[in-house]
Structure formats: C-alpha cells, structure tokens
Amino acid sequence: MNHTDEEAYAALRGCDMAPNKTAQKLLLQGAQNAWDMLSEEQSQKHITTGSGSLNDILGGGIHCKEVTEIGGVPGVGKTQLGIQLAINVQIPVDYGGLGGKAVYIDTEGSFMVERVYQIAEGCISDIMEYFPCHHDKASSGQENLQPESFLAGIYYFRICSYTEQIAVINYLEKFLGEHKDVRIVIIDSVTFHFRQDFEDLALRTRVLSGLSLKLMKLSKAYNLAVVLLNQVTTKFTEGSFQLTLALGDSWSHSCTNRLILYWKGNERCAYLDKSPSLPVASTPYAVTSKGVRDAGSSSCKRVRVM
Amino acid sequence: MRPPAPKNSAYGQQEPRPGNLLFFLAPHRAAKLSLGCPLLDRLLSGGLPAASVTEIAGESAAGKTQICLQLALLAPLSPHPSSSLFLCSDVPFPLRRLRLLAPKSRPDLLDHVLVAAVHSPSDLLSLLSRAQYHLSHPSHSPHRLPTRVILLDSIASLFRADFDASPADLKRRSGLFFKISAKLKELAHRHQCVVVVTNQVVDVVEGNTGNTVAWSSGRQVSPALGLAWANCVNTRLFVTREVDSNGGSARRHMKVAFAPHLPVRTCEFVIRRDGVFGVEPAQRTPWPWTAGLPPNRTDDDDDRICHVAVCFHGTLENGVSSS
C-alpha cells in the first residue's frame, strides 16, 4: 500500500467521517498486543479431526482464524476428512465441541449424503460413549443429537465451473454475515476447475491468490476455520517424477497450515508440512465406517473385515 | 483479460443458494442404478450413485464393456425408468452382445440405448454439449424415456493417438481430462445422471506413482491416463481377472479402489451368457433369497451364483437392500 497520509485522510473524509477520530479508533480496534492474542488463542477451541493422533500433530485440531490446506492422492481420505470436519464442528458446546455450522463448497461431486449421514451417526455414537452420564442428565438435549440435525447444519454449495467458484467465494462474505454461527468453510477441492485448460497461467495465479486472500480475511473476520482440499500432481524435476501439490509454487504460500495425506504401505498417514507454530510431524490415521479415527482402533478393524 | 464465462451457467445473475442436505437424502438413496445382481449391488451399497462419475478400470477382457452393456439394459427397468447414452470409442459397438443380453421378452429395451461413436477428445466434448441440450430439453414422446445414464467406453482409447510423452502434450492432455470430467460432472449433477467411464490399464514400470495399483493376470497394473485422470473421477472400480495355471476358467474380481461412500472391498463375479453376476465367497453360507428359488444351473456354474432371471425382472422394483 503506497498511500500517503494525505490520501488516507482524503479517503476517510470521503467516507464522511471525522478523520482523526476514526483513524485513531480504527487503529485502536485493530491493534492487539501479543499477550492478548496468545491468551485468546489458548482459550480458542479447535475443531477435532476425529483422530487423537492427528489432533496432536495439528496442535489440538483444525484452528479457527487460519487457512489449512489438505492435500493427497485420490482415495487417501481428503473428502472423508472434509466431511468429518463439517460434522465435528457441530458437536455441541456441552460435549466439548464448538456447536457451530459448516459451509461445504463441493467442486468435484464427491460429497455423498449417505456417507455424511453415516459419519454423523458415528460421531453421535462416539459422543454417547464418551459422555454416558452427561447424556442421561441432559435428556432435553437429546433431540438435538440426531444425524438429521447434523445434516441440516451443513450449508452445501455444488458448483460446476470456476466462475461459479469465484462467485460463491465472493458471495460468502454476505452469507457469513447472515450466518454468524458458521465456524468452518470447506472447499473440496479448490483445484479441480483450475486444472482445465487455463492458458494464461499468470491469470490463474492472480485469481487464485485473490481467492486465498479473501478466504484468509473471512477466516479472521468471522473467527472460522478455512479448509482447502487440494489434489496432487506429478512434477518433473531433476530427471524424475515427484509428487507435489497442484496449483504451483506461488499457491503454496497462500495457506497458513498444510497437511499432506499419503499412503505408507497399506496405512494412511498424515504429514504436517507447514505450520507457523508447530513442528513438522507425521502420524498414521484411519478411515473407518464411522469416519476418520485413530489407526489401530477397534472400529478400524471392523471395516477391514468387510 | 477476463476469463470467458462458461455458457449455460445455471446461476446467471442470482445469488448462489446452499442446498438443503435433508432434501437430498431421500432421493439420493433411491437414485442408485442397480447392476442387476444383489451381490454386486451389495458391494456398491445399492448400485452406482447418480450425480457422480464412476470409473471402471481393467485390462482387456476383464468385463468392463459387459458391465456397461448390462447397465444400459437395466436403466429402463430401474425404479426411475430412463434411457442410456452409450458413447463408444472402442469401435465397433458390440451390438450382437447387447442383443444377446437383452431378455427375449423385452426387445423394446434396446430402444432405450442411444449409441454414439466418439473418435477424439474434441469429438467427445462437442457430443457432451449436444447431450446437455438433449438432457435439458427432454422430448415428451411416451416412447422416449429421459436419459439418466451416460456410459463412456472407453476414455483411454480417445487419448491413445495424438499425444506424445512430451511435457507440453502431457499438460494439454491433463487439461482435457479436467475439461471432460467437469462436463461429465456438470451433466451428472444438473440432471441426476449416473455416469460411468471405463478405462484401460497400463503396466506399472516405475515405483510408487501415487496411482491405484492392482494385480491382474499376474501383472501389476494401474489404470491408464495417470494420476491426473485419477483426480477426475469420484469412484474408481477395478476389475481384474486371474487365469489359473492349469488353464481353468478366469476368476474375476471387482474391487472398490476408492469411493467417497464405500470402503475398500472386493467381490468376485462371473460373466455368463446372460450377463455379469457376483459370486458369493465360498466360505459363506448362501444368501437367503437364493434358497427359495429353483436352482438354475449351467454346466460350469456352481449354485452360489445368484439367480439371474430374477435379478433381471423381479427384484428390481423391490430394490434388494444391502447394508
């Protein structure tokens, strides 16, 4: 921003506000000392992924006010994790959740309602298992814990082209203003429509960085988590093909956290590739009939038997 | 320069509206297309999902085209009777086999299979645009069912010619994959179509490329067209065949390689004169619904193969439920 002070004053005057007062107020509102930020961050609840070890490497789960990118090869569980987060964000506050709602932007058509229902049922049965006495007492809250209500808490957008994708993300600002209880926005996947014949790659980069800036701003403004699912592509470097996340190097700057899902033999693993506050780490996880869970748990074996 | 706006965007100038998932739930469950066999339907928990692209990958003679032909004939018999659009790039179209599969009592089923030949990726894209018009302007003739099934056999043969392994060509190729897939998915979503695309396989030469790997005929194979295409499908089914060393008949398996709604699991199947049918694993007891039926044995089948004629005519309306 190369505005001079005069220009800034002129702009503020244009808004029909007293320049000095407003500028001061804006500054005071915007500024926050690091101590406040730390205590605020520590009091923040995170969105659980369903797997304890995955939560551990993420520092408690998916963080609000941050953009997290999740990448991996087809079939490794990106969409499963996306759906799981859309359900888990709705765990009521009484049961240690955020009690929020989710926006799910589906660009690929992999969001299957029957699977969402299954994961919601799995989530409810786990809540019942962890809070048996709590549940007995709060019988009034029981009607709240129905898979149907979890489904109703997901605002689902199916989009079929990149113009629609841009339009939906622009519209999100208004939508989130009207739906303040949304605590997570999931885009599955951010990549798909941008891998068609985009001849002007510089334009693609500009459009994408515009989108990511907008999402980052939204995540701060509305205190919500943004989760972007990304595909994996092969890149030819130094005489060999290597797997890398799609959309190129400039895109890789646009997320706060990056989690990479990969296969290690027959085991699914997650690798925290980028985070401003956490060490690089990896852990196995599993996708069970109930959703994303720890590897080696009993519910995982049940699926293998099928 | 602004990117050109795609035509026929349904949103127009309106604000996008989120869909209500509860509204989706009921029709979603009914909208699956049965494979005509309870065992294969159980593998897919009810059949092939609508509004989604399913790939069937497998080596030649694994049974891909057979499954497609069977689906084409089952579409008019499904709870939502519909015609199917069969896009054929592996010339010639197996018309004789289709006639053989169609039950003698229902020759009219063939009227609902619309066949079109495609020769190149651009051919396919223009055909899909025409199909879009056809789907959004259904004819009101009582003899013409709405098209709800799109079968493409096969995607790989479209890309066999005209492309080198040079980086520029690979990039152009994957751009086309995403364009074709976006079009298929758009048709699938807007018109609740079941889209099936078959794919060939290639031998695995390098180590881990991130793509699906399976054993078929003693070789390690991956679906063709690489990782880029793998990103373009929602569900991947892998059909494999193994021939015994002593020259016995081939054992075929259908495996869910990945799917948003299904766990990885496998079912054995056989191809018979009258179609493709699942086989119950030997260690399990026969299914209750096969018990009351008269055994319909042919020489090389055992009695665990589910009853065919019933699958074709009777149980479709009831929709054999599975877990």
From TrEMBL, chain A:
<dbReference type="InterPro" id="IPR052093">
    <property type="entry name" value="HR_Repair_Mediator"/>
</dbReference>
<dbReference type="GO" id="GO:0005657">
    <property type="term" value="C:replication fork"/>
</dbReference>
<dbReference type="GO" id="GO:0003677">
    <property type="term" value="F:DNA binding"/>
</dbReference>
<dbReference type="GO" id="GO:0007131">
    <property type="term" value="P:reciprocal meiotic recombination"/>
</dbReference>
<keyword id="KW-0227">DNA damage</keyword>
<dbReference type="GO" id="GO:0033065">
    <property type="term" value="C:Rad51C-XRCC3 complex"/>
</dbReference>
<dbReference type="GO" id="GO:0140664">
    <property type="term" value="F:ATP-dependent DNA damage sensor activity"/>
</dbReference>
<keyword id="KW-0539">Nucleus</keyword>
<dbReference type="InterPro" id="IPR013632">
    <property type="entry name" value="Rad51_C"/>
</dbReference>
<keyword id="KW-0233">DNA recombination</keyword>
<dbReference type="Pfam" id="PF06972">
    <property type="entry name" value="GIP1_N"/>
</dbReference>
<comment type="similarity">
    <text>Belongs to the RecA family. RAD51 subfamily.</text>
</comment>
<dbReference type="Pfam" id="PF08423">
    <property type="entry name" value="Rad51"/>
</dbReference>
<keyword id="KW-0238">DNA-binding</keyword>
<dbReference type="GO" id="GO:0033063">
    <property type="term" value="C:Rad51B-Rad51C-Rad51D-XRCC2 complex"/>
</dbReference>
<dbReference type="InterPro" id="IPR027417">
    <property type="entry name" value="P-loop_NTPase"/>
</dbReference>
<feature type="domain" description="RecA family profile 1">
    <location>
        <begin position="43"/>
        <end position="232"/>
    </location>
</feature>
<comment type="function">
    <text>Involved in the homologous recombination repair (HRR) pathway of double-stranded DNA breaks arising during DNA replication or induced by DNA-damaging agents.</text>
</comment>
<dbReference type="InterPro" id="IPR016467">
    <property type="entry name" value="DNA_recomb/repair_RecA-like"/>
</dbReference>
<dbReference type="GO" id="GO:0000707">
    <property type="term" value="P:meiotic DNA recombinase assembly"/>
</dbReference>
<keyword id="KW-0234">DNA repair</keyword>
<keyword id="KW-0547">Nucleotide-binding</keyword>
UniProtKB/TrEMBL annotation, chain B:
<dbReference type="GO" id="GO:0003677">
    <property type="term" value="F:DNA binding"/>
</dbReference>
<dbReference type="InterPro" id="IPR027417">
    <property type="entry name" value="P-loop_NTPase"/>
</dbReference>
<dbReference type="Pfam" id="PF08423">
    <property type="entry name" value="Rad51"/>
</dbReference>
<dbReference type="GO" id="GO:0005524">
    <property type="term" value="F:ATP binding"/>
</dbReference>
<dbReference type="InterPro" id="IPR013632">
    <property type="entry name" value="Rad51_C"/>
</dbReference>
<dbReference type="GO" id="GO:0000722">
    <property type="term" value="P:telomere maintenance via recombination"/>
</dbReference>
<dbReference type="GO" id="GO:0071140">
    <property type="term" value="P:resolution of mitotic recombination intermediates"/>
</dbReference>
<dbReference type="GO" id="GO:0140664">
    <property type="term" value="F:ATP-dependent DNA damage sensor activity"/>
</dbReference>
<dbReference type="GO" id="GO:0033065">
    <property type="term" value="C:Rad51C-XRCC3 complex"/>
</dbReference>
<feature type="domain" description="RecA family profile 1">
    <location>
        <begin position="29"/>
        <end position="201"/>
    </location>
</feature>
<protein>
    <recommendedName>
        <fullName>RecA family profile 1 domain-containing protein</fullName>
    </recommendedName>
</protein>
<dbReference type="GO" id="GO:0005657">
    <property type="term" value="C:replication fork"/>
</dbReference>
<dbReference type="GO" id="GO:0045003">
    <property type="term" value="P:double-strand break repair via synthesis-dependent strand annealing"/>
</dbReference>
<dbReference type="GO" id="GO:0090656">
    <property type="term" value="P:t-circle formation"/>
</dbReference>
<dbReference type="GO" id="GO:0051321">
    <property type="term" value="P:meiotic cell cycle"/>
</dbReference>
<dbReference type="InterPro" id="IPR020588">
    <property type="entry name" value="RecA_ATP-bd"/>
</dbReference>
